[in-house]
Design goal:
Oligomer: single chain
Distance between the termini: 12 Å
Structural class: alpha/beta
Mean pLDDT: 94
Largest sheet: 7 strands, mixed
Helix content: 25-40%
CATH architecture of the largest domain: 4-Layer Sandwich
Radius of gyration: 22 Å
CATH class of the largest domain: Alpha Beta
Number of helices: 14
Shape: globular
CATH superfamily of the largest domain: Ribonuclease Z/Hydroxyacylglutathione hydrolase-like
Strand content: 15-25%
Strand order of the largest sheet: 6-5-4-3-2-1-22
Number of strands: 22
C-alpha cells in the first residue's frame, strides 16, 4: 500500500476541509468539514466521498468550525465507526455546532416544504439532529502539546493555534516523517486568545492560505465601532452584526462591553441573539486555561448583554423601535437568527450592518460586501438600503505576514509544502511570496487530487 495524501476539500476554496493521509497501513482523515458558499460547492456535501468511510481508521479535528467538522455526521452515516479526536474545547464546540447544524437543516427543509421555495420534492436535511448525536458518540479528547501514540507506528500531537477556543495545528509522525497540518492559524495579537505556537519541523506541510494575498488593515476597531454606533444612533437606527458564534461573538461582546464600561459608547441596549453563541459562552467560561481573560472580565462582558433565549424574544427586539446593537449568527449570513433581523431591517436606510471576518464566495455576506442591491432571504428578495460596513481587523485568521511569521521557527524547508484552505488567487499569491522570501517551492493541490508521499 503506497503512502499518499488525498485532497477531499478546501483545495482551491476555503471550506470543506478534509485530507486523507494514508501512511504506514493506516488511513487518517484530518478534518471533516462542510462545503459552504457557492452552490456547486454546497452540492458536494450531498455526494459520497471517493473513499469508503468504513475503511478510515481515525479522524483528527484541528478545531470546531463547521467547515472543519460539519461533515462528521455524514461520514458516520456512510459507515465510519472509528474514533474522532480533538482537544476538549474543540469537541465541546464541535458538539454544539453539529447539533445546531442538524436542527437548522431539519427546520430549513421543513420550512422550504411548507412555503414552497425549494426545487426538491421534498426538501431533505443533509443530516438530522439525531444523526449529529450519533456522531458525537465517537468523540475522544486529546491533550494539547503532548505526543500521543495513535497507532503502533504513528504518533500525533495537537498544538495551540490561537484561531478559536481549542484550535490546534496537528503534527503526525509516521514512516520517519513529520506531517504538519496547520488548521486555521490565529492572530499574534488577539483580544481573547494567546499567540499561536509555531512548528519547528515539517517534512510535509499543509498550510492554510485564507488571507495569503493580503494584510489585515491597521485599523482601530474600537474607534471604528464608536463611529459606527454614533452614526447609527444619529440616524435613529440599529446596528446589526452578523457574527460567527464561536470566538467572534465573544470578542465583539468583550470589546463592546469594554467601550461601555469606559463610557465611550452610549448606554443603549445590547443583545446577543444566538443560541449557539450562548452555549459557546459556557464553554468559554469553563476553559479558562485556553484563553487570556479572567473570570471577572468574562462575567462583566456577559452582564452587559441581554442573552436572547427564545425566538419570541427576537421579535420583541425587532418590534422595539429604539436604537440597539444586535450580535446574531451566522457570520456569513448563511442562516441563523440574523436572517430574521435582516428581513425586517435591511430595507431601512437608518440601519447599519457591520460585517466582520471572512465572507466566502456565494454567501449573502459576500454579496453585501460586494454591494448587492438586494438579498434573497428564505425565498424573498429584500432591498439593501441599510448602510454596510466591513472590518477585517477582527478576523481570527492570520494574514500574509502572520502566516510567514508562523513559519519563522522552521529549521529546514519541508520536502513538500501544500497550500490549502484558500481561494486560488490567495493561494497563488502566497506561493509567490514564499518563493520570493524563503525560496520555497509549493504545490497548489486541486480538489480530489492524490499525491504520493
Amino acid at each position: 500500500m503506497k503512502n499518499s495524501i488525498h485532497f477531499l476539500g478546501a483545495s482551491g476554496s476555503v471550506t470543506g476541509s478534509k485530507y486523507l493521509l494514508q501512511i504506514s497501513g493506516k488511513k487518517i482523515l484530518i478534518d471533516c468539514g462542510l462545503f459552504q458558499g457557492l452552490k456547486n460547492l454546497r452540492e458536494l456535501n450531498w455526494e459520497y466521498l471517493p473513499i469508503k468511510a468504513s475503511e478510515i481508521d481515525a479522524v483528527l479535528l484541528t478545531h470546531g468550525h463547521l467547515d472543519h467538522v460539519g461533515y462528521v455526521p455524514r461520514l458516520v452515516k456512510m459507515g465510519y465507526k472509528g474514533p474522532i479526536y480533538g482537544t476538549s474545547p474543540t469537541l465541546e464546540i464541535a458538539g454544539i455546532i453539529l447539533l445546531d447544524s442538524g436542527r437548522i437543516q431539519e427546520e430549513s427543509a421543513e420550512k422550504a416544504n411548507e412555503e414552497g421555495f425549494t426545487k426538491h420534492e421534498p426538501a431533505e436535511a443533509l443530516y438530522t439532529e439525531k444523526e449529529a448525536e450519533a456522531a458525537i458518540e465517537h468523540f475522544q479528547s486529546m491533550p494539547e502539546g503532548d505526543w500521543v501514540d495513535l497507532f503502533d507506528d504513528i504518533k500525533v500531537r495537537f498544538q495551540y493555534n490561537g484561531h478559536i477556543l481549542g484550535a490546534t495545528f496537528i503534527e503526525i509522525e509516521a514512516a520517519g516523517k513529520r506531517f504538519v497540518f496547520s488548521g486555521d492559524i490565529g492572530r499574534k495579537e488577539d483580544y481573547l486568545l494567546r499567540s499561536p505556537k509555531k512548528p519547528v519541523k515539517a517534512d510535509y506541510l499543509f498550510l492554510e492560505t485564507t488571507y495569503g494575498d493580503r494584510l489585515h488593515p491597521n485599523e482601530d476597531i474600537e474607534q471604528m465601532l464608536i463611529d459606527i454606533i454614533s452614526r447609527t444612533i444619529a440616524k435613529g437606527g440599529s446596528l446589526l452584526i452578523p457574527s460567527f458564534a464561536v470566538e467572534r461573538t465573544q470578542t465583539l461582546m468583550f470589546i463592546l462591553s469594554k467601550l461601555k464600561k469606559e463610557n465611550r459608547i452610549p448606554n443603549i441596549p445590547m443583545f446577543m441573539d444566538s443560541p449557539m453563541g450562548d452555549r459557546v459562552l459556557k464553554v468559554f467560561k469553563s476553559n479558562q486555561i485556553w484563553h487570556k481573560r479572567s473570570h471577572q472580565e468574562v462575567d462583566e462582558m456577559i452582564e452587559n448583554f441581554r442573552i436572547v433565549k427564545k425566538y419570541e424574544e427576537t421579535w420583541e427586539i425587532i418590534d422595539n423601535p429604539e436604537s440597539k446593537i444586535v450580535i446574531a449568527g451566522s457570520g456569513m449570513i448563511t442562516g441563523g437568527r440574523i436572517l430574521t433581523y435582516l428581513k425586517q431591517y435591511l430595507d431601512r436606510p437608518e440601519t447599519s450592518v457591520l460585517l466582520v471576518g471572512y465572507q466566502a464566495e456565494g454567501t449573502r455576506g459576500r454579496a453585501l460586501l460586494e454591494g448587492a442591491a438586494e438579498l434573497k432571504i428564505q425565498g424573498k428578495y429584500i432591498p439593501v438600503k441599510a448602510e454596510i460596513f466591513n472590518s477585517q481587523s477582527l478576523s481570527s485568521h492570520a494574514d500574509q505576514m502572520e502566516l510567514l511569521d508562523w513559519l519563522s521557527e522552521m529549521q529546514l524547508q519541508p520536502e513538500k509544502t501544500f497550500l490549502i484552505h484558500g481561494e486560488n488567487l490567495a493561494r497563488d499569491a502566497f506561493r509567490l511570496k514564499l518563493k520570493d522570501t524563503l525560496n520555497w517551492s509549493c504545490e497548489l493541490p486541486e480538489l480530489w487530487s492524490i499525491v504520493e508521499i
